[in-house]
Amino acid sequence: MDIRDALPYDKPALRDVARRSLEASYPLDPTTITAAVDEWYAKETLDERVQQDKQLLLVAEQNEQVVGFADAEQTGESTAELYWLHVDPAYRTESYGERLFEKVRATFENRGVPNLLGRVLAVNTAGGGFYERHGMEKVGEETVDIDGTSYAQEIYAEGDTDAEALHVDGTTVYIDHTATESGSLGQFHLVYAEEDGEHYGYWCAKCESLANAMDAMGRIQCDGCGNTRKPTRWDAAYL
C-alpha cells in the first residue's frame, strides 16, 4: 500500500470512494449523498484544496487503485481538523484507515501543529470508536444541518484539554485553548457547557468575548469585532 498526496486527476476516484463509504456508513438518502459529494469534490474545489498549503489531502493506493483518502486542514495556529477519512467498504478489513490517520497526525506534528480534532455524526458509532482507539476522546457535541435535517455531531480531540472556566449569566462554561478554528480576523476557541460536556459556542480570541451570533449565511460571527468563523465540512467518516 502506498500513501501519497492527492493530485487533480484523482477526482473521479475520490468521489467514487466517498460515495461508497457514505452509503455504507450513514442512513442518508442517496440523493443527499450524491449532492454532498458533488459539492465537496467538484473539480474546482479539489484543485483549490490540492494547491493550498494548510490543506492535507492524502490517498491510499493498492496496485495503483485509490482505495481510501484523508481530507484534513490546519484550522488554527496549533490545531488541525480531520474532515474525512474514507475507505472503500471492500477494503475496510485491512489497515488503510489506520495508516491514513497516522500519516495525517504525523504530518501535522512535523509542521508544528500538535492538536488534532475530528468530527463525526453520532449515528456513526463506528467512527467514534475509531477515534477512541487512536487515543482521542469525545470533548463535546454540536448540531449540524444536512439537506434540511438536523444531526448530532460529536467532536473528538487528542489527550487532555486545557479548559479555562468562564462565568456567563450565572453559568460556568469552559474555553478549550487547545481546540482552535480559523476566523476572518483571528482564531476561535471551542467553548463547552461542562469541562467534558456539550459544545456551547465559540470564544473570539480577537476581542476576547463569546461569539454565538450567526450572520445571514449561517456562519458564527462575533458581535464585538465582526470576526467570522470560516465554514468547515461537516464530518469525518471512516466507517
Automatic annotation (TrEMBL):
Give the matching InterPro entries.
Answer: Acyl_CoA_acyltransferase (IPR016181), Bact_Acetyltransf (IPR050832), DUF5816 (IPR043854), GNAT_dom (IPR000182)
The record, for Gene3D superfamilies, names: 3.40.630.30
Alphabetized, the UniProt keywords read: Acyltransferase, Transferase
Q: What is its EC number?
A: 2.3.1.-
Q: What range(s) does the N-acetyltransferase domain occupy?
A: 1-156
Against CDD domains, the record matches this protein to: NAT_SF
Say which domain of life the source belongs to.
Archaea
An example molecular function term from Gene Ontology annotations = acyltransferase activity
PANTHER family noted in UniProt? ACETYLTRANSFERASE, AMINOALKYLPHOSPHONATE N-ACETYLTRANSFERASE-RELATED-RELATED
From the Swiss-Prot or TrEMBL record, give the protein name. Answer: GNAT family N-acetyltransferase
The organism of origin for this protein: Halovenus rubra
